[in-house]
Write a structure and sequence with these properties.
Blueprint: H1 2-85
Coiled coil: 13-54
InterPro entries: MbeD_MobD
Pfam family, one: MbeD_MobD
């Protein structure tokens, strides 16, 4: 009976070792997937930063255009007023 028990223990150890190897394989796969996801998140972060910079540039451009439009309207009003004097 001692031999059967030892054989059973040895078989259980082999099965656990196989399961451990399978688990290690799964962990490696998950690690690769997480790395790929991290790379994708990094690329998305860069794209968002680029879009943010572009939106900032557009907003600055709009501000300049609004300021120029305001100045042009003031100049038109000044010219109209001057023309009305003559």
């Amino acid at each position: 009976m001692g031999e059967i028990t030892n054989e059973m223990i040895w078989q259980a150890i082999k099965e656990l070792a196989d399961q451990l190897q399978q688990t290690n394989g799964r962990v490696e796969q998950l690690t690769k997937q997480v790395q790929q996801m991290n790379e994708q998140v990094h690329r998305l972060s860069e794209q968002v930063s680029d879009m943010d910079q572009r939106l900032t540039d557009v907003a600055n451009g709009q501000k300049i255009l609004v300021e120029e439009l305001f100045e042009n309207k003031k100049e038109i009003k000044r010219v109209k007023t001057a023309l009305n004097l003559y």
